UniProtKB/TrEMBL annotation:
The lineage of its organism: Bacteria, Bacillati, Actinomycetota, Actinomycetes, Mycobacteriales. GO terms for cellular component: extracellular region. It is found in: Secreted. The chain crosses the membrane at residues 13-32, 39-57, 77-97. Keywords: Membrane, Secreted, Transmembrane, Transmembrane helix. Its main location: secreted. It comes from Mycolicibacterium fluoranthenivorans. This is Enterochelin esterase-like enzyme. It holds the Pfam family Esterase. GO terms for molecular function: acyltransferase activity, transferring groups other than amino-acyl groups. The keyword Membrane applies. PANTHER family: DIACYLGLYCEROL ACYLTRANSFERASE_MYCOLYLTRANSFERASE AG85A, ENTEROCHELIN ESTERASE-RELATED. It comes from the Bacteria.
Length: 435
């Protein structure tokens, strides 16, 4: 049951049909109650007004007061949230006028089903939780314990691709493995949640190669688990490995925020030392604990939304650590909604400190001849497309090998997963995995 799909199939259909039927029942019970028609109409109108008001107030507080997320939401999200709130008001009205306890409980149960259906419609808008397992954050039973780093490995040279020096063992598994590890903030003291790690089939060969590394960053709000569920990481990487003799990068998905709603902007500031964590602590841990390439020309960083902005920041601030990057639907600069607020809250009002880490400023003042990057935006994501064009133009001016790809889609996980699959060959060539 945990792996039943939520975005399509019988569960989504049952929720939709069940919710529609129960809302009809609520309306029938309400208008069948022995109260004046004007009173019933006033109750429905009040519920609609309250739902609209709470939806608007909630998004305003979340986006502009608490700044829980910087991205704009699509209209469908507000519609489904509003419908859920309206049904809740309707159910409370029915529960208030009904005399029998059984009908009061039924009204509240109807409310719960309708709210779940609306929540799943919001889920479908973003493609965030494909199954019940990922919605509840439950690990897959096939996940393994972190294996020890291997001392004896395939000897390879950096002047040729790893694939050209590798012969797949006959008994190698066709699928990679997922493991979980706590990567401590030894230098940064950053309080990160456990990371998820994809180990490709070649990692488990009797004489494994030292594989390239891909650091993969999630959005905000989000968790490392998002790339496994919504991002279909295992499917994407296993498919790539099947085409390349079991070879794929070791993918480490660290926590770039420190909490589901935290936003450290991927910088070192009063909000936490996220930059030091991702640029120093995480690479040191990977080099010590995993069987991977030690030279950073074989390392890359990628991310989506907040994670895409963070990947760009790491690539421009630390090109020696991450000379190759993939920015999926990221912003042109780290932001809490607008620059003044960002500088005030994260940098104490010091615009100079902000400019020192801002990617566009760095691209305008430095040269990056040894860096390569890909920027991806959805054709329906006008904001990301505009930011992507600015980033690519600035990158080319700075001597970076960089390109922009526009794929069908919006600012959601379907686009993010598709972008990773599309640009994975580019990353693999740059980090020396394939020709």
């Amino acid at each position: 049951m945990l792996d039943w799909p939520l975005l399509e199939g019988p569960i989504r259909t049952l929720l939709q049909v069940g919710a529609a039927s129960l809302v009809m029942w609520l309306l029938i019970r309400l208008f069948g109650a022995p109260r004046p028609l004007s009173w019933k109409a006033a109750l429905v109108a009040a519920g609609a007004v309250l739902a609209v008001a709470v939806t608007w107030l909630g998004q305003y507080v979340a986006r502009h007061v608490l700044v829980l997320f910087p991205d704009r939401l699509t209209a469908s999200v507000y519609v489904w949230v509003g419908i859920g709130l309206f049904v809740a008001c309707l159910a409370c009205g029915v529960a208030a006028v009904e005399q029998r306890r059984r009908l009061k409980v039924t009204a509240l149960a109807a409310c719960a089903v309708a709210v779940l259906a609306c929540a799943n419609q919001v889920n479908a808008t973003f493609g965030a939780y494909p199954t019940i397992r990922y919605a509840l954050g439950i690990a897959h039973p096939d996940d393994i314990a972190l294996p020890a780093s291997r001392a004896r490995t395939l000897v390879s040279t950096a002047d040729r691709s790893l694939e050209s020096q590798w012969k797949r063992p006959a008994d190698l598994d066709s699928r990679g493995k997922i493991t979980t590890a706590v990567i401590p903030g030894s230098l940064s003291s950053f309080g990160a949640r456990p990371a998820k790690i994809y180990l490709p089939p070649a990692y488990f060969a009797p004489l494994p190669p030292r594989l390239p590394v891909l650091i993969l960053l999630t959005g905000q709000p989000g968790t490392p688990q998002d790339w496994l569920g919504a991002g279909r990481l295992s499917v994407v990487m296993d498919s790539f490995a099947a085409e390349h003799q079991g070879l794929a990068p070791v993918v480490v998905v660290p926590d770039p925020t420190g909490g589901p709603l935290a936003d450290p902007l991927c910088v070192d500031s009063r909000r936490g030392k996220a930059d030091s964590y991702l640029a120093v602590d995480v690479p040191r841990w990977i080099s010590a604990k995993l069987t991977v390439a030690q030279h950073h020309s074989a390392w890359s960083v990628a991310g989506a939304s907040y994670g895409g902005t963070c990947a760009l920041q790491l690539a421009t601030n630390h090109p020696d650590v991450y000379p190759t990057f993939l920015d999926i639907a990221g912003s042109v600069e780290p932001t809490l909604g607008d620059r003044n607020r960002t500088v005030a809250e994260a940098f104490g009002g010091d615009f100079t400190a902000f400019e020192r880490i801002n990617p566009l400023t760095l691209l305008g003042s430095r040269r990056y001849p040894d860096s390569a990057g890909a920027v991806v935006a959805g054709t329906s994501d006008a904001e990301a497309r505009g930011d992507g064009r600015r980033i690519v133009q600035a990158g080319k001016t700075a001597g970076m090998q960089i390109h922009l790809t526009e794929l069908p889609g919006a600012h959601d996980w379907r686009l993010f997963s598709s972008a990773l699959r599309h640009e994975l060959p580019f990353l693999a060539r740059k980090i020396g995995l394939i020709d």
